[in-house]
């Protein structure tokens, strides 16, 4: 078999994605096997490509779940340090399922925005009562930060 880019070079290698014959000069190491330069430069893995309708679904699900989490966080003062990471993990899982288990920077940004937007909506629905008490507001803001970090961590690492 001859290399597709170098017709005078014999090779036994082929691209794991498209099957094009490649020589050692043309091959690019992939996650599993070797790729031709064309397949290696196609962009990101399908793991990071979220369809637009899934992205919108994840945004709606994230804001809804973030709003529910915001209601819970407004009433759990001291225990937020124990509960917030669990809630963040659950929110991350909701968004992962809504996107079809896709990951990447866009999904991480979506997660952070939806958690913060949901927390803001929960404040609006309860009449901003937390804003009048500095200690409660501090606990709430710390809880939102912990939930956001845990949700993004779920998307990024698990």
Task: Give the helices and strands, then pairings.
Blueprint: E1 13-14, E2 21-22, E3 28-29, E4 34-35, H1 37-40, H2 52-74, H3 80-98, H4 105-125, H5 134-157
Antiparallel strand pairs: 1-2, 3-4
Notes on the protein architecture:
There is one protein chain. The chain has 158 residues and is mainly alpha-helical. The chain folds into two domains: 1-42, no CATH class; 47-157. It has five helices and four strands, in the order E-E-E-E-H-H-H-H-H. It has helices at residues 37-40, 52-74, 80-98, 105-125, 134-157, and strands spanning 13-14, 21-22, 28-29, 34-35. It has a two-stranded antiparallel sheet. Helix 2 runs antiparallel to helix 3, helix 3 packs across helix 5 and helix 4 (105-125) runs antiparallel to helix 5 (134-157). The protein starts with 12 loop residues before the first strand and ends with a helix. The mean pLDDT is 89.
Oligomer: single chain
Cα-based radius of gyration, to the nearest Å: 23 Å
Please state the overall shape, judged from the principal axes of the Cα atoms.
Answer: rod-shaped
Spans of at least 5 consecutive residues with low confidence: none
Secondary-structure content class: mainly alpha
Helix content: 55-70%
Give the beta-strand count. Answer: 4
Number of helices: 5
Read across the widest sheet, the strand sequence of neighbours is 1-2
What value does the average pLDDT take?
89
- Helix and strand succession? EEEEHHHHH
């Amino acid at each position: 078999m001859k290399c597709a880019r170098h017709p005078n070079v014999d090779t036994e290698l082929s691209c794991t994605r498209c099957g094009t014959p490649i020589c050692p000069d043309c091959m690019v190491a992939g996650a599993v096997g070797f790729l031709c330069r064309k397949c290696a430069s196609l962009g990101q893995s399908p793991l990071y490509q979220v369809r637009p309708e899934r992205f919108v679904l994840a945004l709606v699900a994230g804001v809804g779940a973030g709003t529910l989490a915001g209601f819970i966080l407004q009433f759990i003062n001291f225990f937020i340090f124990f509960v917030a990471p669990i809630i963040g993990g659950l929110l991350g899982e909701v968004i992962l399922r809504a996107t079809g288990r896709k990951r990447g920077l866009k999904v991480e940004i979506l997660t952070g925005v939806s958690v913060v937007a949901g927390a803001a909506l929960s404040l609006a629905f309860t009449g901003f009562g937390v804003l009048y008490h500095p200690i409660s507001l501090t606990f709430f803001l710390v809880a939102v930060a912990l939930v956001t970090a845990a949700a993004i961590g779920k998307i990024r690492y698990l």
